[in-house]
Amino acid sequence: MQTLVVDSVALIMIVAGVPMVVIALTTGCVAMLQAVTQIQEQSVTHLVRVATFIALVTLGGDMVGEAICDLFERSLRSIETIGRRGM
Asked: Where exactly are the structural domains of the chain?
């Protein structure tokens, strides 16, 4: 049961954390580039964020989906095991 909780938290950190870090890094690079070139257009930053997110979902969506399905199946199996112990 504890490994299921630990795995759930780790999966949440990976699914939410990795895109946030990658988007933050790319946005920071674009912001530095905008500061150097003195282009103060906000839509460029938003476009880069959306494009980065789409690229991350395209590249890692299958892996994340499989990991979530695997965790869901494991949680259902653990519910069944807990139910047997209670009888």
From this structure: 2-86
